[in-house]
Amino acid sequence: MAIVDQIAYQDVHGIRVGRFRRKINTTCYVYAWRGNLIDAGPPNQWKFVRDFAACQHIKRVLITHHHEDHSGNASRLLNAGTPVHAPEMSVSPLRDGFPIEIYRRIVWGIPPRVTPLPFAGIPEENGLHPLLLPGHSNDMTCFLDRQNGRLFAGDLYISSRASHMRFDENAPQLLCSLDQILQSDFETVFCAHRGLVPGGKSAVQQKRDRLRSLQAKARERQRQGDTEAEITKRLLGREDLMSLMTFFHFSKRNLIRGLLLPDLKT
Ligand SMILES: [Zn+2]
Description:
The chain is of the alpha+beta class.
């Protein structure tokens, strides 16, 4: 599989890479803007990321979070002479390794380990402001380009109609992060799996609102005595091929379970 898609929007460029093209979560975008490479792409797509980074004259790599589809080529880019910066909380999994289920190894490959630099050393004029917005993972970091009203969202958004969740995602934290980012000034969203999201900010708002509405319905059913399994089936239908293929690591029930947790105190 080669490059699935390319983006050129104003001065932002991106490539979409992946082994399997059918589902958005089996392909991933990396973006280039003003010498910054936002995410390093999956390890099994190295040659496309390498060529893209070279033709975009990349000066530094900014990792949004440690997952292998985002950080997978960080080590190779560093070995090729490009500094790699990542969130503080990503350092330990990137340096020491982290568990990767078999289906993820098949889709993305296995990332070489890397010790990244902090964001603190990045010159101010790079124009991107890192914001820690946990939930999808505890190190999930988005980059806000305030001057142009753009958000490089990593995996914060992915879809406004999420029906599945990974077992290790934190739904209450995700809802807080969505509330938080909606306070910021931006219009355009570059998502790591969806690409350029039309009406970016309102799409993020739709995601937050839909999750809140699903949460209200799930809590109401729980008050009426339904079990987690019954609530899932009622509100999202039976588990599908995606849940089965990931051995329920990524499932509808995870989403309902997460939404039934108490809200975080803010
Ligand atoms: Zn992720």
